[in-house]
């Protein structure tokens, strides 16, 4: 070092180590190709709807309504957005009433999803961390959870209907249980995949077992937990829909089953579009929050 300094060399600056500096994770935004894919999907629906209409106008407009049928009230005999409210409130339909019905029932479903998924995720992570800490607890708790996890979640709807009827608490417990069963498995798998090298290095530095678990294992599972929560939040809307289809008289699932009974395909398409919209909003919010919380990670951009 002395020889290098004598030769006029300067110590490397901090800028020379930029390759090792973690790159901040950028929040992804849709590009032109992604928008084009969505446009092509919508155009394909419209073209196929016109094709079915040419084959059998009345049946085609009922099974695959064109966008003009969904968005206008020019065709009251077919399923439309205008018809969302018709037959459900017992009064003359109009756009304002249809919007009120959609907003009220959307709020009910969103509340169920957010509360049920939040409780399920919180319990899954907390119990997963506790079970991951103790090997004996893992051997006792994990087998029953794995056994319940193998049961199709839709097969439990009749039991929840029998236990809780159409009460709100039954739907919330149903969503919470389904999310909890997925989240605890995700948490345990994330703990299992933490590299032993990190833990051994911390022990060599004098860290206790609890310190290793708190400062090494817990932060290391954040990326896996974030990915799992992101998937589970999307599935939660489908779980809520399944519960609402059979055991409630409010919510988007209720609108879906009423539209199906009245052959209102356009109304069902509107409800499906709302599920997609709300799922995208929740996903976007979660991506921003998780990106901020894990900004210290030298990882690629979240997609």
Plain-language structure description:
This protein has 303 residues and is mainly α. The protein has helices at residues 2-6, 32-55, 57-63, 67-71, 95-133, 135-149, 157-164, 168-192, 196-204, 209-220, 222-247, 252-261, 265-293. Helix content is 71%, strand content 0%.
What features would you highlight for this structure?
mainly alpha, 303 residues
Cα gyration radius (Å): 26 Å
The run of helices and strands is HHHHHHHHHHHHH
Query: How many angstroms does the end-to-end distance come to?
Result: 45 Å
Instruction: Note the main sheet.
Output: none
Shape: elongated
Q: What's the helical proportion of residues?
A: over 70%
In terms of DSSP E residues, the strand content is under 5%
Helix segment tally: 13
pLDDT < 50 stretches? 1-22, 75-79, 86-92
Number of strands: 0
Question: What would you call the structural class?
Answer: mainly alpha
Please, what is the average pLDDT?
75
